[in-house]
Amino acid sequence: xxxxxxxxxxxxxxxxxxxxxxxxxxxxxxxxxxxxxxxxxxxxxxxxxxxxxxxxxxxxxxxxxxxxxxxxxxxxxxxxxxxxxxxxxxxxxxxxxxxxxxxxxxxxxxxxxxxxxxxxxxxxxxxxxxxxxxxxxxxxxxxxxxxxxxxxxxxxxxxxxxxxxxxxxxxxxxxxxxxxxxxxxxxxxxxxxxxxxxxxxxxxxxxxxxxxxxxxxxxxx
Length: 221
Prior knowledge:
By secondary structure, this protein is an alpha/beta fold. It folds into two domains: about 5-170, Ribonuclease H-like superfamily/Ribonuclease H (Nucleotidyltransferase, domain 5, 2-Layer Sandwich); about 175-220. The protein contains eight helices and six strands; from the N terminus they run βαββαβααββαααα. It has a six-stranded mixed beta sheet with strand order 1-6-5-2-3-4. A hairpin with an 8-residue loop joins strand 2 (about 30-40) and strand 3 (about 45-55). Residues about 1-20 have low confidence and may be disordered.
């Protein structure tokens, strides 16, 4: 069973955010997981997805789409979520797999891994974006902008983002000539300049155009 719904309503109040989950609870879905990913746009590093099951009725103040939070706010909320009794898991798909299957499929694979790693089996899954997760025999709903209007997806977006940032911080130690702890692999001017000077590393996504361009250029130099 797979459902898809597109919602474009902006984030308003905590009560508004709880509506989707509360409606599902009233329909008998007692274990609801929200899932989201971080890292679709970077030129380097993995895509990371998180799945989060929040205790029913739990309110964590200031939950929001991770992209709208500062790093300090994300780190604080990461600890709040982890210590709240929520069930959390992550799925990580590396750059080589991204190059092999494309970033959309890799993102859905990461979400699949995150869901399958949960300590409890969810009865319903809320997925951020346009697509539900393939090969799961669990009812799902895809919500456009879900990370801005749904608590469990907001929590998943924060877990995924902080986890990926920490992975990129470790890559900074392996590749000190790159500023991975600063740009996290995203195509900033600094990162593009580094690509021109140093060339791609083992964690760069070779099929992404700026990286592919550098590789092709080196072949003809």
